[in-house]
Amino acid sequence: MKVVQKEISIVTRKRFDFIKITKQIEEVLDSVKIRKGIVTVNVPHTTAGVILQEDDETIFKDIINMMEKILPLKNKYHHSHESNENAVSHVASTVIGTNVTLPVIDGKLKLGTWQDIFFVELDKGRNRTVMITIVGE
C-alpha cells in the first residue's frame, strides 16, 4: 500500500469564487502511478470548502443564493469580531464541507459524468492551499 501527500496552491479572487481543481488533482494522481485506491482532497482553511459539482455557472449562482438565504450577512453573529462576512464564511465552510474522497479505478478518478472538483472561496480573495492524500496500490 502506498500513501502519497501533495499540496497545491490556489489564488482566489473574491468571495464565492468557484475554482475547478479537477485537472490539478488528476495530474498529482498520474504522477504517483496508483492504479486503485482513494484520493482525499482537503481544504485546511476554516473559511473555504471543496465540493463535487457540475461546471455550470447557473449552479454556482444557485449555491450562492442558497447560502445567502441560510446565512444572511445582516444577521447578528457571535463570531463577528472580524466582520459579519468572516463569521458567515466560517459557518458556510461547515455547511459546504472541507473535504471529498473519491475512488481511483484503473489509475483514474472515478467521477460522475458531470462531476468536477471545485475549491470554493467563502471569504475574500487570497492565497489558499489544497491538500491531496492518495492511498492505494
Principal-axes shape call: elongated
Percentage beta strand: 35-45%
Give the CATH class: Mainly Beta
The named CATH superfamily? YjbQ-like
pLDDT averaged residue by residue: 95
User: By helix and strand content, what is the structural category?
Assistant: alpha+beta
What is the succession of H and E elements? EEHEEHHEEEE
Overall tally of structural domains: 1
Helix content: 25-40%
Query: What is the radius of gyration?
Result: 16 Å
Poorly predicted regions: none
N→C terminal distance: 5 Å
Number of E-type strands: 8
- Say what the CATH topology is: Jelly Rolls
Number of helices: 3
Main beta sheet: 5 strands, antiparallel
CATH architecture: Sandwich
Biggest sheet, strands in spatial order?
1-8-3-5-6
